[in-house]
Amino acid sequence: MIDTLDSENGNDVNTWAPSFEPMIKIEGLHKKFGDFEALKGIDLEVMQRQVVVVVGPSGSGKSTMLRCVNGLELATRGHIYIEGIEVTHKATDINKVREKVGMVFQSFNLFPHLTAVRNVTLAPIKVRNMKQEEANQKGLELLGKVGLADKADAFPAHLSGGQQQRVAIARALAMDPDVMLFDEVTSALDPELVSEVLDTMKELALEGMTMMVVTHEMGFAKEVGTRLVFMDEGVIVEDGDPTQIFNNPQHPRTKDFFSKILSHL
Amino acid sequence: MSSFEEPGVSGWAKASLVMGILGLTALPVFGAVLAIVFARIAKKQILHSDLKGDGLATAGQTLGIIGLVLVAIGIYVLLMQDNLRAFFDDFFNWNTIKKWWPTVGRGFVVTLYTAVIAEFFILIWGLVLALLRISKVKVFRVLAIIYIDVIRGLPLILQIFIIYFGLSYLGLNFSRFTAGIVALTVCYGAYEAEIYRAGIESIHKGQMEASRSLGMTYMQSMRYIVLPQAVRRVIPPLSNEFVMLTKDTALLAFIGYSEAFLVGKEGMGKAANVTPLVGVAFFFLLVTIPAMRGVQYLEKRLARGD
What is the reported pLDDT for A3? Predict the structure, then answer.
């Protein structure tokens, strides 16, 4: 029923990884919203430097799983560990964990009352007590990295969707995270703005960032993903090499899903 | 309709305007009535022909009506001369104005600074209540809801009396000023808490999530992300509350606090006419009307800014 990741599979994808300790470890994760069970037992291990692309029909629990990882949603049952620290444990300081986990959202969620560079530097200054000048320097560096050095003093309202999303990526990177979570980050963008955001993400992946990417961009999954997870109705249905799953999906639900979306390509 | 020929202006309309002017000058009543009659004829004529002059007819008609109203007022003043003189003597007595309005003005200064000091505490207390009201801790939330409901369910005058007289039994002897400030803060804090809450809840929850996901605490996120945006949105309604507060400060007269209304009332007794109270009204309007205009201007500007 549920294809959990066996060790063989994990090593397969990750033979070159420097550490065999999983970056993210999800064990028996359940999440209920009232009577609705969004996640029905998720087991998943994400190794360092992996780019795990999570796909599936809407309502399959992809975003919920992602939001459980950094504690934006509280797990109903099960355990989540990030670098060995249990996120789901009551005594864990969730803020400390979140410093290590960057997140980018579908709706950008930039802070509209702050300039681009202030969006990036606020958390380092307030959470890390970084000095203003140092943070500014770093902020400008990160904005340069996402190609927006000239927009440092612009307010979000004066940026395009693609630019806003790239600022949001720079903002998440400012805390030097070990993992980045991307929650349908191109879904709210005009089609012509999608590629600039995907390119930024690709660059990040090439630098070796560990990433979990919930997306509908199958091209990105194939090209950048080192691993593909297909979810449906709150469970992981298939998990493995992206190209293999695209070319030869094992599960009927995966076949059905790909046949529906790939027919448009 | 021929497009080469400019349609003429209705003669009736011209006549109406002329009569309207005469009705205000040389031919009162008669001219005004004719102006209205001519205007009606002109309008009917224009409706069924190509003739122009509808605006002219309307002008004539308006002048006619004004002429009649002025005549009516004139007759009324003539008939009620004595009453009106008595009224002005009572409400706008020049000697009393000279003697009492400066005193009332000083009372109004007290009103103003009392309102300002109270507002300072209200802004803080209201925010605290709002944060308790939306707290994740149920006890805080329930207590805040009870407080806000009870306070908003009671007349302010009652709260002022209860706080001034009631608390003395608890061994707390408040001066009139302190009791006044406390009562206004207790009451208006509840209203402003609800305004703050609406403002905070109007900020998209993605803002809090983005902020929290960066490792900022709930309080940091509130302080640096949510509140700066929320406060901007609630400035107009909070300013409105301040105008109301300024007016309600007059209720402190009932515990003997010497603000504008009480001074005016004393003045009324001593001068034996209403003029000092008219002075109080004058000073209130001097401040409240510009303030209300200002709030509307702020609302428009902030609406554009979003």
Answer: 44
Write the pLDDT tens digit of every residue in A108-124.
999 999 999 999 999 99
A187 to chain B, minimum CA–CA distance in Å?
A: 16
Q: What ipTM score was computed for the predicted complex, to two decimals?
A: 0.88
Give the per-residue pLDDT at B304.
66
Strand ranges for A98-220 from DSSP E = 101-104, 179-183, 210-214
Helix B94-133 / helix B138-152 crossing angle, nearest 10 deg: 160
Q: What is the pTM of this model?
A: 0.77
User: Cβ–Cβ contacts within 10 Å for residue A7, how many?
Assistant: 9
Interchain pair B216, A172: CB under 8 A: no
Secondary structure, 3-state, chain B: CCCCCCCCECHHHHHHHHHHHHHHCCCCCHHHHHHHHHHHHHHHHHHCCCCECHHHHHHHHHHHHHHHHHHHHHHHHHHCHHHHHHHHHHHCCHHHHHHHHHHHHHHHHHHHHHHHHHHHHHHHHHHHHHHHHCCCCHHHHHHHHHHHHHHHCCCHHHHHHHHHHHHHHHCCCCCHHHHHHHHHHHHHHHHHHHHHHHHHHCCCHHHHHHHHHCCCCHHHHHHHHHHHHHHHHHHHHHHHHHHHHHHHHHHHHHHCCCCHHHHHHHHHHHHCCCHHHHHHHHHHHHHHHHHHHHHHHHHHHHHHHC
More confident residue, A96 or A14: A96
A72 part of contact set with chain B, CB < 8 Å: yes
Q: Contacts of residue B220 in chain A, CB cutoff 8 Å?
A: 126-127
CA distance A87 to chain B (A): 13
- Facing residue for B215 by CB, picked from A109, A110, A127: A127
- Is B294 in contact with B253 (CB distance < 8 Å)? no
Helix (H, G, I), strand (E, B) or coil at A70: coil
Is residue A82 within 8 A of residue A109, CB to CB? The reply is no
Three-state DSSP class for residue A175: coil
